[in-house]
Amino acid sequence: MSYQKLEQHQQQIHRLSHLSAICGWDQAAMMPAGGSEARADAMAELGVLIHQKRTAPELGDWIANAECEPLDEVQRANLAEIKRHWQDASLLPGTLVEALSLAGSKCEHAWRSQRKHNDWAGFAVNLQEVVSLSREVAQRRADALGVRPYDAMLALYEPGMTSARLDQIFGDLSGWLPSLIQQVSERQQSDALLIPQGPFPIATQQALGREVMGVLGFDFAHGRLDVSSHPFCGGVATDVRITTRYNEQEFISSLMGIVHETGHARYEQGLPRHLLGQPVAEARSMGIHESQSLFCEMQLGHDPAFLALLAPHIRTHFGDQTAFEPANLVKIYNRVEPGLIRVDADEVTYPVHVILRYELERDLIEGRIEVADLPELWDGKMQQWLGITTQGNYRDGCMQDIHWTDGSFGYFPSYTLGAMYAAQLRFALERELGNLSQIIAAGRLPEIFAWLGRHIWSQGSQHSTDELIRRATGEPLNPHWLRQHLEQRYLP
Amino acid sequence: MSYQKLEQHQQQIHRLSHLSAICGWDQAAMMPAGGSEARADAMAELGVLIHQKRTAPELGDWIANAECEPLDEVQRANLAEIKRHWQDASLLPGTLVEALSLAGSKCEHAWRSQRKHNDWAGFAVNLQEVVSLSREVAQRRADALGVRPYDAMLALYEPGMTSARLDQIFGDLSGWLPSLIQQVSERQQSDALLIPQGPFPIATQQALGREVMGVLGFDFAHGRLDVSSHPFCGGVATDVRITTRYNEQEFISSLMGIVHETGHARYEQGLPRHLLGQPVAEARSMGIHESQSLFCEMQLGHDPAFLALLAPHIRTHFGDQTAFEPANLVKIYNRVEPGLIRVDADEVTYPVHVILRYELERDLIEGRIEVADLPELWDGKMQQWLGITTQGNYRDGCMQDIHWTDGSFGYFPSYTLGAMYAAQLRFALERELGNLSQIIAAGRLPEIFAWLGRHIWSQGSQHSTDELIRRATGEPLNPHWLRQHLEQRYLP
């Protein structure tokens, strides 16, 4: 049967990708500087091999044949995913893929110093090249898939999502978010909070982080915590590698970063093990992945009940400070403050950063605006939404993110989709299990994870994102729940 | 030109092997237990791919053509190595390779618990299977290479070496080693030595280890030190990963283990970088590799001048103890004591363990003895050489090593060849640079490494082992130098 051949073929790809993932983690978390050139060559060599397998000439026939074979529901879902991955890999001519990869590497590499020097003119030249090639990629994908160019990029990260729907969803947010930010800012203005006094030794932060991962049910037999300059969740489902970075003067953000990555990790660790190696066993989308990290970080991690649970762990490791009082931790973690930098943003202002980027990248990819327009448009939106300016400050404006440098257009919406999925899941969970804060306070965290495991993790990619969310919550994605969450937490 | 095609092909194999080496290191030093099954599958998948490349059908023609092409000296040496590797990979039918790999995995896996339980009967059944298949491997290799079966196995680790020559070399050792052991034991009987008093915190041992690696010129921009249950030197030449294991109560063996692995590492780091990716840029043989680790550990590391240099580092980390006096460290490190376990043996009795294994594995592979004969023969040789018995104690007798469990027959001689090469190199170096202890005492360690770099590391596999040693020392391998070294150090 062709279907069995496809399964074996996927297994091979999965195994080679396993080694690529581990070596990628090593590159970020372990490798000494001098190893980078030979490693990049080695990774590229394996990348070529994996790409050859993903685009093997026999796959088209096998897929067509398998579509006529008697398959059960899971197999049929797997076949659909196999077909999707095959199309994604095969749609583009190798020369275009290579050109974008080269332009992306060049742009990203130069960006690292150009950003430091606020060198917009230098950056714009490289970005222009990446945008030109990305437009070609988007157009070719659009032609083949019969969708709009930007939607063809979105499909790489959030299959099924369209810009028409994003316009609607983000339009909804735009209706209530600015005034909510305004109200919360006013209300918090008089809030005094205590800053924990360091130093906080790295080794102690690490021990605390591992302890909290344990509280969150991270399976240390199938994963590790290490250090890298940009935190991420990598590795493979059977061996999940999360990373963080430490600052001796401040443990607050690193600790919550670990909580965030643990959310990603538990999703990976909870994927259907018996289907391992098949696409149907993989995470559904970037948005769903982010929903799991944000569920851990925002729904759980920033909940006063969770911070009350955290406080004694913090005291055990860093001694007693008034700043460690749960009420003060709540103030620290739930502080809302408009700022220029996305990765430093709180959960209330974060969607602003995403919607801004979404609107710009959508128009950029579809040719309605040009690279040269970005700084002014960026500044305008920042002023309009958050009342702050990035004029002349490219570094903290349209040069702050890595995503566009390598052509990852279509990725940004995943962050806010994740926040919305997380809120929606939270209220669905509460309808079944009761109030989240009370569950946490009662030390019943495992029930929360069992619920997520049942409804999200164990489902892998068996259903479309819409169907997955509908089954878990009773309705498709609805931004109402993010609003309800934010209003409950910040305007009680 | 066919030669260029071969070079590109080797580069591909090298890059894929790079990822295999890093993931292998990760498996031993980083991977959590639950990751092992999927990792083994992934490594096997890449192993198959690499094997396919090593045995690609076009290689035979390319090699034949390249042999008629105009090549310079280095290219010709590279071609010879390419041909050797191709033969090694192609000589055996895939079914035999797979059968041995399966039998080896099974035997090794079971051995881990059988050894603990002294279960010779259970082990013998699996070992018999491994021996049968290894005999077939040896015979097929022998037929193709036109040499004796055991020599065909030796060629995998020490190309150019034969059992006829080993009989002669080890015969020489057998002539003087037993009485030397006897004399040294008697002389040391009255030596009192002080044992350093722990605990020695792991983190401090690690810091000390890294410091000593620095003293030995390890390049941390191209390598790391980590922990694994069996110390090794892995990774790739541009990124060498060495490991050790720690015991809170005792730092003496771990520290010298680091010195040993640093010797391996400096060889790798010193291989000709401009030829990276080609076989000619690889280490010459297992024996030469071991000569570099043993040069570091025994010639340098156990030298009183080096231990005098080490003492202040030890004191800085562990405070002041009389046991840290250089004279006492010399007594600790140069203690000679016949024992049952090879890996715990001192440099004087170590060759006994190797010669014993050599004689048994040679006769086993060539069918003169059977698995069932091993315990009695082992015990007899231990009694004869060291006056100790392994009767009924299989665990510390013929079940103590991992090598035979997976069919690595022909490897053991490398250890003692390495010790002999190291001694011979030492005296050659002294003829050029002067007395080694004085060079160390004068803080001129870099000169020693520059000499090794010039004569060994930078040579890669450009010459045969014999030629390499002849060029470096003026004569082929000569066991006289090991004797001279041992007599100078232990019977001054």
From TrEMBL, chains A, B:
Cofactor note: Binds 1 zinc ion per subunit.
Cofactor list: Zn(2+)
Protein family according to the UniProt entry: Belongs to the peptidase M32 family.
GO BP: proteolysis
PANTHER family listed in its UniProt record: CARBOXYPEPTIDASE 1 (PTHR34217:SF1), METAL-DEPENDENT CARBOXYPEPTIDASE (PTHR34217)
EC number(s) recorded for this UniProt protein: 3.4.17.19
Source species of the chain: Aeromonas cavernicola
Keywords attached to this entry: Carboxypeptidase, Hydrolase, Metal-binding, Metalloprotease, Protease, Zinc
Lineage: superkingdom: Bacteria
Protein name stated in the entry: Metal-dependent carboxypeptidase
Keyword Transcription annotated: no
Catalytic activity, reaction form: Release of a C-terminal amino acid with broad specificity, except for -Pro
Any one Gene Ontology molecular-function term assigned to this protein's record: zinc ion binding
Active-site residue list: 261
Role played: Broad specificity carboxypetidase that releases amino acids sequentially from the C-terminus, including neutral, aromatic, polar and basic residues.
Enzymatic class: hydrolase
InterPro entries the record matches: Peptidase_M32_Taq
Record: residues binding Zn(2+): 260, 264, 290
Pfam families: Peptidase_M32
Gene3D superfamilies xref list: 1.10.1370.30
